[in-house]
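[09:14] KT: can someone run the structure on this one? pasting the chain below
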Amino acid sequence: MIKHRMKIAVAADHAGFPLKQRVIEEVRKLGHEPSDLGTHSTDPVDYPDYARAVAEAVRAGRADRAVLVCGSGAGACVAANKFRGIRAATCHDTFSAHQGVEDDGMNVMCLGARVVGPELAAELVRSYLNAKFSNLDRHRRRVDKIEQFEVEFGSEPPTAATQILR
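[09:31] RB: done, structure tokens below
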């Protein structure tokens, strides 16, 4: 039984589309509320558009976290990390899926549909969504430094995404 029902934005490009439905099923199975932000077919699309969709959902507070799927997980991750308050990581193992949340405050998990199969993807989603930020001093200090980079090198005001760890 979950203690806190989360809203989870899920999006994929055309390469990730076949895996997206399995991710959504697992989010639902865990008792969370998925929000399908597309794409809805294998017709070619650009992964940055879907990275933007999940980043905006998290930043605006319409989603607590997100799962983003592309072919490798790398391109979508690079694009998502361009948004202030987004801490995205490509995860292809369960340790990274939970450690990224616990230590680094990851709020977008990126998956490579050409790298992981449906059952591993489900396992990664479970690991990611069951994890909580540790809020240990050393991890808080490091995330604060990352947030300071955003202030120093960016010009956007703070968003709902930066409030997740507070």
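[09:33] KT: thanks! The first helix runs from residue 17 to 29.
[09:34] RB: yep, looked fine to me
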